[in-house]
Amino acid sequence: MASNVNPTVRRRRLGQELRRLRELKGMTAEEVAERLLVSQSKISRLENGRRSISQRDVRDLCGVYEVEDHRIVDSLMQMAKDSRQQGWWHSFGDIPYSVYIGLETDAASLRVYDPQVVPGLLQTKQYAEALIAGALPETASAEIEKRVQVRMRRQERISTEENPLRLWTVLDEAALRRVVGNRSLMRDQLEQLVEQSQLPHVTVQVIPFDMGAHPGLNGQYAILEFPDAADSSVVYIEGVTSDLYLEKANDVQKYSVMYEHLRAQALNVEQSRQFIADIAKEYAR
Would the pLDDT of 140 be above 80? Predict the structure, then answer.
């Protein structure tokens, strides 16, 4: 889907603009909710882009904020309309992390740290199948296949020649040593990882066990950055029942600094590539 009509990103931009209008009016989310006879949580969800927003919502909010410029109102109403369109991922049904997929689809760059598994954008189909089946043991085979298909579709962001996603991945050695599926499957996965690491827009680094304690021990996270300066960077932390999206500048800065420390402590690109290749050979024995 073209980035300029990505519904997830449109919701974020619209939410940011509505928050700006509220703050210019000097009103709190609670005050706005009281005026519109809705919950404060609804106002918060509309502003953070986690909820679809109707043109009626936009009209009502513009009324509360006393927006008199009809061009601004019309523009926001159009954004609300666009934000309700469906992205490519909706054709697969209910995807728990659809908000993240929408952000990833429009991102210019993605920095990922994963201590346990190979990141989804770099997984082979067989690895993805075994990983999802193992992580979700009570999930039906049809649902597993749907998730795998979505993952393979997401990988088009790095396989496309036109405006590919700039991906930087830092992996813990545990992600390479954990046998997902079987040893043959792991060999194929690591060999593909070596090949992908040679793409000009993909960087892979490894933190070996003997590097000891490091800033990533708290767990996996990803930092998404966007081509439009109006779209703030997002830190994504995946959860079991819900995901966390951090957009405050201070939070993004802290995770960005932590990522710089991870990159500095990891093996360099060439060392990492050789490290992965050596482990792949071990799986061939």
Answer: yes
